[in-house]
């Protein structure tokens, strides 16, 4: 008889909503299936960006800034998540996958209580009403990728329904922006979590095996001196 006890249980990716003051998880969203692919974009914040009007590179006034950075790189993630009630539920699901979809949608929606509170302030003649602050959201992809994010895109494609027209299968296109110390106030828990995420990258980069100039066909040359 074949035994599978030693096969490790796969780690799931997911989203965690935490209290920014205490760090206590308020809600954990475990993705039913890990996405097959991840699309990541990393754009540096170069101090020399926005050169001359001709668009041919940095202008003469930016030459001292060509190798300088204004802050952390801007990073975005995109992936497709799948939700399937026939795989997910071992008990009756009278609402289909409505609860799972609503949980994700509430990541970009203020609550009714917050909207009513803002409406009352408006009725009382408040001149300026502060924008509603959402909870701190983290995206996790294993232990080496835990980062504060803002949901920037949520596109839902519902592809199957039960007899009551509750969705039972859907694919979701999700876009995330990694929040950095440039996006969050000093001392915010999210800023500390971003620094921990960046420190993890530094540790991984330090563990990479370095190459040699010989592998580039440059051994024994003075090419790096600028003298040919």
List the helices and strands and how they pair.
Blueprint lengths: L13 E5 L6 E6 L8 E8 L22 E16 H4 L9 H8 L6 H12 L12 E5 L5 E16 L5 E12 L10 H19 L21
Antiparallel strand pairs: 1-2, 1-5, 3-4, 4-7, 5-6, 6-7
Description of the molecule:
The protein is 19% helix and 30% strand. It is α+β, with helices and mostly antiparallel strands and 228 residues long. It has one domain (14-42, 70-207). The protein has a seven-stranded antiparallel beta sheet. A hairpin with a 6-residue loop joins strand 1 (14-18) and strand 2 (25-30). The radius of gyration is 24 Å and the shape is extended. Residues 41-65 are annotated as: Disordered. Residues 48-60 have a biased composition (Gly residues).
